[in-house]
Amino acid sequence: MWLALLALAGSTAASCGGGGDCGGASVSLRMAASQDKVGLLQRAADEFADGRKVGGRCVEIEVDSKNSGTAMLALARGWNERTDGRRPDVWSPASNVWAAMLRLRLAGSDRPSPIADGDFPPIMTSPLTIAMPRPMAEALGWPGKAIGWEDLSRLATGPDGWKAYGHPEWGAFRLGKTNPNLSTSGLHATVGAYYAATGTTSDLTEADVTAPKNRAFVSDIEKAIVHYGHTSLTFLSNLLRADDRGQALSYISAVTVEEDSVWNYNQGNPGLDPAQLGKRAKPKVPLAAIYPKDGTISSDHPFVPLNWMDAEKKKVADEFLKFLRSEDVQRDFQDHGYRDHQGRPGRHATPQNGLLPHEPKTMLSLPSDAVLDTMLKTWGELRKPANVLLVIDRSGSMTEGVPGTGKSKGDLAKEAAAEALAEFRGQDEVGLWMFSARLQGEQDWQELVPVGPMDDARRRTLRERLLGLTLAGGTGLYNTTAAAFDRMRAARESGSINAVVVMTDGKNERPGGLDLDGLLQRLGTREEETVRVFTIGYGEDADQRVLRRIAEQTDGASYDSSDPNTIRDVFTEVISNF
């Protein structure tokens, strides 16, 4: 059906008519796309390539998941396939803003830009919303009352929290928002908060961003943050698990996500994978999408050809873009919660599904590149402080070499962790432990740097201790994680993100200590100022399943670095939670 539509649209790529000789190697096109739409795009790519030839050669298209901000950084560095993954021919971040950020990164450097100037055509669109558990949204007046950032700022800073709306049992207002340096929803939400502070909808200036009154407004919103992160999918997955426990109203009060995420969550599909639709029960407490009355920004999911493509690949890319914008494909996108490339909602955009098809009424314009740059630089001063203990595995298996690098797994991990320290600011408090098995008598861990303010001296000490780690011993994962959690729980600070980051390349090898059930029971305490555990499974021998269970028990997140070459990006994504 889609192939027939493409032919009517004037396609120059010939159909194979059900198979035949491909005339040698296929024309292979690789696309890097934001995680939320990878499943939909791969399904469309398979339809497009089925039985299709270009110049007598068959077509293959592979769509790789790559976070928008992470891909932008990889492109700015020149895209190293060893560390960044397979080099794409086409890039589809969630917003054209990332193309602007890439050009900004490259400005003044001698590295050529891999993209053309200007904006790129959208594949689909999705406006930013503030998604709330429906009872909370209704307490604020949804769907009839217009709600904005100022309302949430008052709720976040008011002494009574949800008590002011007749629900003291809901406690304080807690917001989930991603890191604007890596995530589109986080960046768009930050832009929206600044516009709300100024009362305007366009022409935001650097003076607006640095004005004390506007900084204070944005800071008040940031104080309500639970934690940050590189993707909103973490919040949605944690929220669905809380819903399973009957605690959907205790994890977060709101999370900034695109409209399509609200629809997918309400279908029981927080990971936005079309193959998973209908395979899980819908949440007992659905989300409602609030479209800020101050205005919002729509993610336009652009199709960005990269300059290194040859002529044959460019022809395939051009035809694939036409296909993606054809009527039937656009309808499929709408059926999965997106709006089409012209911004029109589909049949599922109804209040019953938590969506309001006639919203948003006010759209915001993206600020200039220079204003965005200033905004991101100053956001680091306004974000919620972090109180973090880094716990690094120093077991003997970390001495294994990584092919093609001339370094061991331990070398790469130590360098990545040391580099990630740059993401912490002076208002943060950071400490460092290492662990193996029976490192100090019966104790599996050793404190290298106590948790304390991240001044220049501590930053230097942390870096020196990380790079100087010696590698030997077994893996006392469970005892160490429990001890780190207990230490941070005793030292947790109100008004900070309190967390433990555990990186290991193996499984628990400590006889006589805690077992997994004992650890999970220890971590299961949930309080107003909770400690979250973030885990990194490093290398092929790490037990990713167990590490996910550990992180999920505290409403944290688990990160998979099975390929040691990815550890730099993984550490960046982990630290983006703070």
From TrEMBL:
- Signal sequence extent: none
Q: Which PROSITE patterns match?
A: VWFA (PS50234)
Instruction: Name the source's superkingdom.
Output: Bacteria
User: Which SMART domains does UniProt cross-reference here?
Assistant: VWA (SM00327)
- Give the originating organism: Thermomonospora umbrina
- Residues annotated as region Disordered? 337-360
- Coiled coil ranges (UniProt) are none
Q: Under what name is this protein listed?
A: Ca-activated chloride channel family protein
A Pfam cross-reference name? SBP_bac_11
Domain (VWFA): give its ranges: 387-574
High-level lineage: Bacteria, Bacillati, Actinomycetota, Actinomycetes, Streptosporangiales
